[in-house]
Specification:
alpha/beta; 8 helices; 39% helix
């Protein structure tokens, strides 16, 4: 099966990364999980570590093995890279080539041609904001495929587009790319 790098960024939808991790692991995929600092405020790394049976990476500056550069090695070993959920902040960083955390550093180090998916999750106004839409267009030009958010009642109480795509849809999209 495939080596999938799942990057989790700070969104209330981060809890759905547990279901996604569980489903992909049960299908036989080997998961490497990356989390932004804000993602760890919504779901603990231990939850995803328990489901994936692998260490979860949260800090680009922590190197367990001094003979390796972790974010480079993870990028080289990735068959498919997915950010789910992808916050507006992480989208902006990816679109502008910033590499200030584990998620963005691995993303920037991915070999050309590695399939890259993004599943945005945020408030409707944030998603529809021209800056976010421009960042999504940039990411598309950089080879990222968006898994569109769905319309729903959001955690903030607003109704609109911005809810993370259903996990089953994300899993199907991953299958298409593998």
């Amino acid at each position: 099966m495939a080596r999938i790098t799942l990057a989790v960024s700070g969104s209330i939808s981060a809890y759905k990364a547990a279901d996604l991790t569980s489903q992909l692991t049960k299908q036989g995929h080997e998961l490497t999980i990356l989390m932004t600092k804000s993602a760890t405020q919504f779901i603990t790394p231990l939850t995803l570590q328990s489901l994936s049976k692998h260490l979860v990476h949260t800090d680009v500056m922590i190197e367990e093995n001094p003979s390796l550069i972790k974010h480079i090695d993870i990028a080289k070993e990735t068959d498919l890279f997915i950010v789910a959920p992808a916050s507006a902040n992480t989208l902006a960083k990816l679109a502008n080539g910033l590499a200030d955390n584990m998620v963005t550093s691995v993303a920037l180090a991915l070999p050309i041609g590695t399939p890259k998916l993004i599943a945005p999750a945020m408030n409707t106004n944030m998603y529809l904001n021209p800056a976010t839409q421009e960042n999504l267009e940039k990411l598309s030009r950089y080879g990222f495929t968006e898994i569109k958010p769905r319309e729903a009642l959001l955690a903030c109480g607003d109704f609109g587009t911005g809810a993370l795509a259903e996990v089953d849809i994300i899993v199907e999209k991953i299958k298409e790319f593998l």
